[in-house]
Specification:
183 residues; extended
């Protein structure tokens, strides 16, 4: 009976992993398509042109691979930024420098969060650049880094405000559904 429970747990975890993986892939595809289409619509809208869904799709379809590429590159860069922190923390733990490992772990983690936020904001314009300026992913990352350097704090503020608004709206919706569910 113990091995049956273990098998059931393994099957459940395997299914959960597949569901998570499929959800992540579908989410990534949706993110890329929506980013591209919204960029095309807004970019043309700034020029006074109205663009329908079909036209937006025609504009962005040739650039989807590049938008996907720049999105993946950004995620990889953000992930790889953690490698030196992880290596150094592992070395400190392995050499039994516990106090130093704890201090570095906490302070380093906070520094890494700041580095991640800075890098994310600096690369945030890369997907729209891929669509609007039709640059390749690496060139779009460089261009985004350059463009954001002059207005980092403004963009950071916009993103922070967006996160706060989405969080508050999500909380209000969650509370509303909880109230409706309990009635």
């Amino acid at each position: 009976s113990g091995s049956v429970a273990v098998n059931n747990l393994q099957n459940s975890l395997g299914s959960l992993g597949v569901i998570f993986g499929v959800s992540a892939v579908v989410g990534l595809i949706a993110l890329v398509v929506l980013t591209g289409m919204l960029t095309a619509v807004i970019g043309r809208g700034v020029l006074g042109q109205q663009v329908g869904i079909g036209q937006a799709w025609q504009l962005v379809r040739p650039r989807l691979a590049a938008v996907f590429g720049v999105t993946l590159l950004t995620w990889l860069i953000l992930a790889f930024l953690w490698i030196p922190y992880g290596i150094l923390l592992t070395v400190l733990i392995a050499t039994h420098l516990t106090v130093l490992a704890v201090i570095f772990g906490i302070v380093g983690f906070l520094v890494m969060i700041a580095v991640e936020v800075i890098a994310w904001v600096r690369f945030s314009l890369a997907p729209p650049i891929v669509v609007l300026e039709q640059l390749r992913p690496f060139a779009a990352l460089r261009r985004s880094w350059q463009l954001v350097s002059r207005s980092f704090w403004r963009l950071f503020g916009i993103f922070l405000l967006t996160v706060i608004i989405v969080g508050v709206v999500g909380l209000i919706l969650q509370i509303s559904f909880d109230i409706l569910k309990s009635v």
